[in-house]
Amino acid sequence: MADSAFFCTLSHEGVLAVRGADASKFLQGQLTCNLNYLSDTQASLGARCTQKGRMQSSFRILLEGDGVLMAMATELLEPQLADLKKYAVFSKSKLTDESAAWVRFGLEHADAALISLGLELPADTDSVVRNDGLIAIRVSPERAELWVAADQADAIKGKLSAQLAEGSLNQWLLGQIRAGIGQVMPSTRELFIPQMLNLQAVGGVSFKKGCYTGQEIVARMQYLGKLKRRLYRLTLDASELPEPGTQLFSPTHGSSIGEVVLAANGPQNIELLAVLQAEAAEGGDIHLGALEGPALYLLDLPYQLDRDREIQR
C-alpha cells in the first residue's frame, strides 16, 4: 500500500509557533535554514544546533500569520520551546506550543484530493499552496502535508476519507525513508551535525545566511570536506523495528560504525535510514545491534550529494 494513494494523521509531531514582529529576525540567528527564503509559497526543512553544531531538533518550517510554525517530533517540542525562550527575552516575539491548534495529515499519491479542496500544489519540493485556511506543502515527489486548523479537522478528514484509504503512520514514515529525509528524535538529540543527516542536500542548511548557533562547525565541515559519516538508506530482514539511536556494527572494523535514524516496515523487509561511517558503508558488512546481529543491505537514495551545489543556498 506504500505505493498507492492514502492519507494518515501525523500524530508523531507537534507544532512550535514563533510569532511577532521579530519572529523571523530572531530565528535567523538560531536555525540552519534561511528565513529569508520562506514565503507564502515556499517552506523549508531546518534544524537547531548546539554551539558544537549538534542538532537539538529538526523540523519543517513555514510562514503563517504573524510568524512561523515548525513541526518537529513531539517529545522535542517542550525542551526546544523552553530553551528558545531564554534567547527571546529581548525580542519582539512570542513562542508557544500550537500543537492543539493544528491537525496535520500526510497524503501520498493524492493530488486529486488536494485539488478537490482547492489546493493545486506544484510538484516542486517545499512548494506551498493555501486556500480557505488550509495549507498544503510538497514534502517530496507525490507526497504532501496538509495543515488544518483544529476546528476544521473533522470536516476535512471526512472529505479525505471519501476519496482516499486511511493509511498508517508507518506507511507515511516509509515514504519519508524512501525520500531520504532524516529526522532528529529524542534518542538522537545532539548526536548528529546537519550534514550527517544529509540536511544540506534537501535544502535544510543555508551557507549564505551568515551566523547562527553552531554555524562555524557546520560551515567548516562543508568547506573542508571532513565529513566521515552521513545518511544512508538500508534494508533489514527482521521482525522488530529498531529504535532510533540503535547502534550499527561492522565486523571488519570491530566496533560501532553508526546509528539508526528512522525505521519503518516495508512490504517485505524493514527499511531504514542510518548515519554510517562512509568507509564502513562502502565495505558493506553492516549489522544491527552487535557484531553478530542481523545484516543490513544498502539501498539507493533519491538524490546525490553535491558540495558545490549545496553551498549555493
Could you explain the architecture of this structure?
This is Folate-binding protein YgfZ. Helices cover 21% and strands 33% of the residues. With 313 residues, the protein is of the alpha+beta class. It has two domains: 160 residues, 2-Layer Sandwich (Gyrase A, domain 2); 127 residues, Elongation Factor Tu (Ef-tu), domain 3. A six-stranded mixed sheet has the order 8-9-10-7-1-11, with helices on both faces. It has a six-stranded antiparallel barrel with strand order 12-15-14-13-16-17. It has eight helices and 17 strands. A hairpin with a 5-residue loop joins strand 3 and strand 4.
- Report how far apart the termini are: 36 Å
Count of DSSP helices? 8
From the helix content, strand content and strand pairing, which structural class follows? Answer: alpha+beta
Strand order of the largest sheet: 8-9-10-7-1-11
**What CATH architecture label of the largest domain applies?**
2-Layer Sandwich
Give the H and E element order: EEHEEEHEEHEEEHEHHEEEEHEEH
Q: What are the low-pLDDT stretches, counting only 5+ consecutive residues below 50?
A: none
The total tally of domains equals 2
Query: What would you call the shape?
Result: globular
What's the story with the biggest beta sheet?
6 strands, mixed
State the helicity in percent bands: 10-25%
| Rg measurement, Å | 19 Å
User: What is the C-level CATH assignment of the largest domain?
Assistant: Alpha Beta
Binding site for substrate: 145
Organism: Pseudomonas arsenicoxydans
Protein name: Folate-binding protein YgfZ
